[in-house]
């Protein structure tokens, strides 16, 4: 049986100048601009045929604050598809409270890299299906990595970063993906800092390197400029899901249009 490929819209949520939650969109994790209200956008995407929905509190880890669980709860009331929530999740108790607020899955990045045992603890307590390990990857063209790919004629490796891409770790993405899988992660959420917000396409070498190394489902993220990019990351990297933000937020393409494009090219999707 062939599993359908998933199309997943994502909102990056931060607090505005008045302390209210708001959705922002940027490029390379910077130059953020106001995009909309998280609860209203969740409602729209639920009605638009999204397969899942991702809510990322993009500054919770960097600012050392808790995830906006009240907003998560309001969003959960509007979506009847799997909801993944990330940002500021540091402990088993944080996982529990986020799931209790209405999330179906939690996405963990910084805390898992700092203490990998958290992956095991979360998977054991709540089930692997609830634990998504998020990777904010960037290319490095030096000899410090473990797994190398050819990108534009140069050899590079992919480094895990933390705190919203603000800090490097010297940890190879592929090696971390394999460890996260071995610790019980149910899914891997692979973001490319280099491609983020560019609309130039997903980082296929990055996504393929991870997909080739693990059996855990992989969500490709960052850089989607249209349906052809989703097709490429499915056909060339074998991703299990494609996440996008800008093209949906600004009405450039609808989820339906992306899925119809894929279906016409024999990519199995839920229409």
From TrEMBL:
E.C. designation(s): 4.3.2.10
Keywords tagged on the record: Amino-acid biosynthesis, Cytoplasm, Histidine biosynthesis, Lyase
Places the protein is found: Cytoplasm
Known catalytic reactions: 5-[(5-phospho-1-deoxy-D-ribulos-1-ylimino)methylamino]-1-(5-phospho-beta-D-ribosyl)imidazole-4-carboxamide + L-glutamine = D-erythro-1-(imidazol-4-yl)glycerol 3-phosphate + 5-amino-1-(5-phospho-beta-D-ribosyl)imidazole-4-carboxamide + L-glutamate + H(+)
Cited Pfam families: His_biosynth (PF00977)
Active-site annotation: 12, 136
Main location: cytoplasm
Any GO MF annotation of the entry: imidazoleglycerol-phosphate synthase activity
GO biological process: L-histidine biosynthetic process
GO cellular component: cytoplasm
Entry-linked InterPro entries: Aldolase_TIM, His_biosynth, HisF, IGPS_HisA/HisF, RibuloseP-bd_barrel
Pathway terms, separated by semicolons: Amino-acid biosynthesis; L-histidine biosynthesis; L-histidine from 5-phospho-alpha-D-ribose 1-diphosphate: step 5/9
Protein family: Belongs to the HisA/HisF family.
NCBIfam families: hisF
UniProt subunit comment: Heterodimer of HisH and HisF.
Record's function text: IGPS catalyzes the conversion of PRFAR and glutamine to IGP, AICAR and glutamate. The HisF subunit catalyzes the cyclization activity that produces IGP and AICAR from PRFAR using the ammonia provided by the HisH subunit.
Protein name, UniProt field: Imidazole glycerol phosphate synthase subunit HisF
Organism listed in the record: Haladaptatus litoreus
Chain's gene name: hisF
